[in-house]
Amino acid sequence: MSVIEYDVIIIGAGVAGLTAGAWLSGQGLKVALVTAGEPTACLSTGCIDVCAKSDDPLQGIAHLPNDHPFHLVSSGTIRQALDDFQQIMAAMDMPYTGGLENNRRVLSAIGTFKTTCLTPVTMQASPQNGNERIHIITFAGLKDFYPGYIISRFKNASFSTYDAGVSTTMGIAANFEDDAFLEAFILWLEKQHNREDKIAVPAVLGLESAAAIIKQIEYRLERPVFEIPTIPPSMPGRRLFNGLKDHFRRKGGMIYWGWPVVGVEKTGRQIEAVMAQSQGRPNSLNARAFILATGSFVGGGLEAKRDTIVEKVFHLPVFVPGEREAWFDQDYFSMNHGIGRAGIAVDSSFRPTDCLWDNIFVCGAILAHTEALKNGCGHGFAIATGQAAAKSCLEHIQ
Amino acid sequence: MIKTDVIIIGGGATGCGIARDLALRGIPHCLIEKGDYAAGATGACHGLLHSGGRYAVSDPIAAKECYDENMILRRIGEKCVEPTGGLFVRLPGDSKMYRERFLRSCDDIGIPTEIMSSTKALELVPNLNPDIEEAIKVPDCSIDPFRLCMLNIKTSEIKGGFSFTRHRVTEIVQSRGRCIGVKATDAATGDVKEIHGNIIVNASGAWTNLIARLAGCDVPITLSKGSLVITNHRLTDMVINRLRPSSDGDIIVPNEAVCLAGTTSLTVQDPDKITIQPAEVDTIIGEAGRMIPHFNQTRIIRAFSGVRPLLKSQKLDSREISRGFQIIDHQNGMYSIVGGKLTTFRLMAEKMVDTIMNAFNLKRACETAERPLDGQEELSGYPLSKRLADMKNIICECELVTRKDVERTIEQTGTRHVGDIQHRTRLGMGPCQGGFCTFRALGIMHDMNILTAEQSVQSLREFLQRRFRGIRCALWGDQLREEQLVEYIYLGILAMEKNK
Predict the structure, then answer these.
(1) FRET partner for B474 with CA separation of 20 to 30 A, picked from A25, A126, A317, B216?
(2) What average pLDDT score do residues A254-279 get?
């Protein structure tokens, strides 16, 4: 067994964990992150939803229910965290558009508008209403994108199909990283002689270089081009994850990839170490404080049993929204499913309430009462609570 | 207006079986179904082709019918029957007296049985509870009820019979006290078809009285709801029954890659308003888990219920009501056929058509027991190698359904309903329950100009709500995790809104 010492160990490589990790590394701490695998961020649109309850996201937060954990983060910290995020992503050549002044709209793959706060620059030109004249490009055999859904709501939309030689989201995105492929695509586009004001493309414009690729297409076609987020696998989600991950590493952070936590060592009111499994042998990762950012059910931080819900790393007490019958509403679209409230309740320093240990901090989607879908609190919430929990953690260590 | 001899209302196994029998005896007919084939109790059952063992003690006549039909269906329908064999297992505490009665009754009826030690039974089904006292082997089979209906209706199609799915009968046309036809509304277009015939057969199962009342008749039936759950894995290769009087959760049936377990039995009033309670799901899992302990850990992908139309009885427990069937002559040109089981559908159809032949004063013997079901040549089971060869165009990853399969089904049936594609290809039947592939299938239907873009979105919305009804009561563990992902995709990434 190997024993490795750190100041802080973060469990979970999603947006919350990477934000907390980068911030703490920036403060000069020795930080490691352990993760069982890819985070749900890779499945996401890459958009940064702060709060969709009102046009002004901060005002939306003010109107959230009293027990919502967003109230534990000061508006100063929210601003700082999102500014930091935008600077990080700009430095990684994946700039984000927007700001906390108001929410933006992003066209979805079924033609609805998704409300969000910051968007990848590749979605900057996304139309803000259904009257805009757009031309949609799709790819032969791409099974996760159907322009028909969008045309049902956009009377001024048309589409054409490009044969990329491959038909998966990842395959097409990889092709776009090749200059010759991009050039052929642009030449084809030019020959289409589309007259619409904007060009829409499913989000496959490159693995990492989407911002540069879209700039080039816009320059040649002399009109705005934007990406439409697709169902998983989602390139903008992967770009977001890769950007944050590389930034964390640049700051000196260490990532233990594919190391699920299998045990915990504790003394008195302190967690001493987490045991992570790798290549068949356990590793003891010791630290002075631990940040839990393992996400909700999809992320794997929570697991529902038939009659209860458990937190999988520390077995922290979980807020369970009543009996199983109450977890899901009868109406699928109600956005009011009790399960959205499940999670870990925390105090103002992001320590779990009724917890036996003093050095655990919790952030991101695993927090109780978040109701991420209903409130439109997504990555923005993860970024804000990630930085807030990291600050509390630093105070604790000092 | 369409003129025919016999009008069949209901496209379950009984109605489809009657259509096939009429076709083979050369009688013009027209079948009308308000949904898709097998949409009622036929498609919402275990998919068990009974050996008769289940009813041997309580209802020897029904048991004998089941056994005889089992033997016939294995012969004529090898592409929709899997001869798995079945075990009746006796758990510690289960009555030994019932075992004696069971063996004696099976013997009297002629159902072959083989008594097995628990060791021998565990060799056959390694997942069985090792604590079982013993097992009795019987010739149970698993049957695909959707495919069964399609193959029966195929014969009708070949012989020029009419059939209209997605058509709801709204009126029975009467003249001088006799039923002479029906009016049926096309759910897609709202168009009304008037169909005239000499005899009307009401084979609408749980909806029997809704139809009978259109002609001023009443049929004495009790509606009994049975709920089932589907697991993510095939935990047994044989049908597993509990060796005790019929009770909740005492049958497990393997079907393709999954298992079905159930049922419950609760009297209901309205077949269109049935819900499943979490307690029912827990009961089924608990009972099935006593026979196959893995049930307690295995992922449940869906729960569903069907409504049995049972002959009316004074008995309080609907489990004790006979599973036999009855033909009711309303003396006005309409007949209702009620009761029975999926296993005995062919026999029911034979007796019904015998009655019709008598009424027409025609003589031609039934051939349905001898002739193999039409259309089986086209089916080659589930050749994995074939499907994997077209990996690039796979639309449903759980069940390996390709874009071509979807396009072919649409071309062949002209359907506008994604549910019809599911019944014919198994699209969306796997662990994600259509979470990914239905979005794609509806996109393809729009590409093919079958649906307008608006209809695709509306169908998607309806599908999600329908799907949710089936999975809502079985959400925990990995299935809940998957459901949260699907919810995130539709309500988050795609920002799908409630119907305006």
Answers:
(1) A317
(2) 93
Residue A146's alpha-carbon distances to A14, A32, A109, A188, in angstroms, are: 29, 42, 7, 20
DSSP letters, B398-436, are TTTEEHHHHHHHHHHH----HHHHHHHH-TT-STTTTTT
B454 touches chain A (CB under 8 A): yes
Question: What share of chain B has pLDDT > 70, as a percent?
Answer: 95
Separation CA B208–CA B163 (nearest Å) = 19
Q: Do residue B111 and residue B16 come from a single domain?
A: no
Q: What is the pLDDT of residues B98-135, one digit of tens each?
A: 999 999 999 999 999 999 999 999 999 999 999 999 99
The torsion angles phi and psi of A342, rounded to 5 degrees, stand at -65, 145
Task: Tell me which DSSP letter residue B232 carries.
Answer: S
Q: Does B341 lie in the same domain as B193?
A: yes
Q: Which domain holds residue B115?
A: 80-141+222-303
3-class DSSP state of B474: helix
Summarised one tens digit per residue, pLDDT across range A150-188 is 988 888 899 999 999 998 999 999 999 999 999 999 999
* pLDDT tens-place string over residues B170-208: 999 999 999 999 999 998 889 999 999 999 999 999 999
Residue A117 has pLDDT above 90, yes or no: yes
**Which chain B positions have a beta carbon within 8 Å of A332's beta carbon?**
464-465, 467-468, 487
Cα of B155 to nearest chain A Cα, Å: 36
Please judge whether B465 and A43 are an interchain contact, meaning their C-beta atoms are less than 8 angstroms apart: no
Cβ A146–B447 below 8 Å, yes or no?
Answer: yes
Continuous segment of H or E residues that includes residue A116: strand A113-116
CB-nearest to B492 from A151, A153, A373 is A373
- Predicted pLDDT of residue B390: 65
pLDDT at A126: 96
Q: Could you tell me the CA-to-CA distances from B445 to B305, B408, B411 in Å, in that order?
A: 29, 11, 10
Name which of A148, A330, A331 is nearest B446 (Cβ-Cβ). A148
Angstrom CA distances, A71 to A64, A115, A353, A369, stand at: 8, 21, 16, 11
Cα nearest neighbour of A109 on chain B: B494
| Least Cα separation, residue A299 to chain B (angstroms) | 9
Residue B211 lies in a domain: yes
Does the pLDDT value for residue B314 go beyond 60? no
Q: Is the per-residue pLDDT at B321 higher than 80?
A: no
Q: Is residue B95 part of a domain?
A: yes
Query: Does B428 share its domain with B286?
Result: no
Instruction: Note whether residue B205 is domain-resident.
Output: yes
B234 with B200, same domain: the answer is no
Residue B353 shares a structural domain with residue B425: no
The tens digit of pLDDT for each residue in A14-71 reads: 999 999 999 999 999 999 999 999 999 999 999 999 999 899 999 999 999 999 999 9
Express each pLDDT in A30-39 by its tens digit: 999 999 999 9
Indicate yes or no: CB of B443 within 8 angstroms of CB of A146: yes
- The 3-state DSSP class for residue A396 equals helix
Question: Do residues B464 and B447 both lie within one domain?
Answer: yes
Q: Where is the domain boundary, B255, B276, B303? A: B303
The verdict on pTM exceeding 0.95 is no
Domains of chain A: 2-94+238-397 (3.50.50.60), 125-223 (3.40.50.1860)
Nearest residue in A to B453, CA atom: A152
**Percentages (nearest 5) of helix, strand, coil residues in chain B:** 40, 25, 35
Q: Closest chain A residue to B472 measured between Cα atoms?
A: A328
* Cβ contact, residue pair B278, A327, below 8 Å: no
Q: Are residues B399 and B485 in the same domain?
A: yes
- The span from the CA of B481 to the CA of A295, in Å, is 12
Cross-chain Cβ contact B492/A306 below 8 Å? no
- Report the number of distinct structural domains present in chain B: 3
Report residue B11 as tokens. 């496209």
**CATH number of the domain within which B280 lies:** 3.30.9.10
B452 inside domain: yes
Question: If contacts are CB pairs under 8 Å, which of residues 335-364 in chain B contact chain A?
Answer: none
Based on the fold, state whether residues B264 and B406 are members of the same structural domain: no
pLDDT band for position B318 (cuts 50, 70, 90): low
B446 vs A146, A373, A378: nearest CB: A146
Higher-scoring residue by pLDDT: B386, B489: B489
Interface of B with A in 104-123 (CB under 8 A): none
Which chain A residues are within 8 Å of B442, Cβ to Cβ? 146
